[in-house]
Amino acid sequence: MKSQRLLALFGAATLAITLAGCSAADEAPDAGSGGDPAGEIVFGLDEDSTGPGASYAVIAGKTIRMAVDEINAAGGIDGKKIRIVVGNDESDPTKTPTVVRKLVDEGAQVLLLDTGSGAVLQGKSVVKQAGIPAIAPTAVTTSVALPPDNEFTYMLANGVDQFAEAYCGAIEKKGFESIAILSDASPAIDNINKLIVPILEDCADVVAEETAPVDAADLTAQVARIKQQEPDVILVSSLGGNFEVLAHNTLFQQLPGVLRFSLASIGNQPDSWKRTTPGALADVVYMGALNMDNPKTVELEKKLKEINGDDYRLTAYDAQAYDSVYLLKTAIEAAGGADDPKAVRDELDKISGFPASFGQAGFTLSFTPEKHMGADGLCGLVLSGFDENNEPTGAWEDFQVPCELK
Length: 406
Known about the structure:
Family: Belongs to the leucine-binding protein family.
InterPro entries: BCAA_transport (IPR051010), Leu-bd (IPR028081), Peripla_BP_I (IPR028082)
CATH superfamily of the largest domain: Response regulator
Strand order of the largest sheet: 7-6-8-9-10-13-14
Keywords: Signal
CATH architecture of the largest domain: 3-Layer(aba) Sandwich
Shape: globular
Protein name: ABC transporter substrate-binding protein
Number of helices: 12
Pfam families: Peripla_BP_6 (PF13458)
């Protein structure tokens, strides 16, 4: 891959915790039980709390509730309180249409699709039919925001195809020639790999592609086959959680010292760091999205620590979830309420320069009718590393994508 291609695409640089308890938003009357329709705004939340995406969806879901509580405590949106109705598709694309229809039937006026990208893709056509604006806070599959059926569906973060371009830049910088890929077999990762593998093939010889079930208990055979190919670098393509812990523990044991790339998952799942073999993450570089030079990031971290304690570790999932709620609030206020979903959609399409709680200082989010991926450039991408104690060390010194804010 030529450096000019990388510069063109990257001239502007994009978990399992326990839900602590029900928030005020969840203590509102059950969906469908009535209430005063004129006095509330209903947010539908498709939250994968039990499936393969739970390792990040639970984190995002908790912060969505926190943001809603914060807005309600300040008087709501134009004097109307927000009520959340919740469904769970378990990141299973076959279940998403049913869950989305259920949320709409329960009165949802806007939607938050806090689930796997593969599931969001399956839900797009239903969202379009319902004519209700939907934001996918943690989605990283670019096609979520692209046609077809994207008229009402939005995402915030940079896409994984852009992650792959960043890793290609690192591969060229390091002089690597070969890469192996170890993936979980979830639908979300299957969709992600369809985007990133062709890009990686442009800059390195993909010498092995191994997969295993999300709930695999042993990856020894897969890693042994990778080892036989002697790759220069390995990509762990996973939703995170137990699979990624097992992957890094096994790779650390069988291929110590070999650099490993990871999607954002491991960097945003603090519980996983504790369950990984000491030192096993020291050879991992993941795609981060947080930079403490961003005052919005610092502000959000302070709020979350006040609620969850000083030991709380801010993640990109928190930031993207928080921003999603406030983007919807901005559009609803501009539309004069949530009763006309198309008007809310039209106001989302007018949002420009919204200060993001993730990415580099000054990083913003904008939408237009033709642009439903919010990131203004690629300054949300930060290649990040770990130390010998499996603690994040911040930006990787060996390579960073060029970053020019729009």
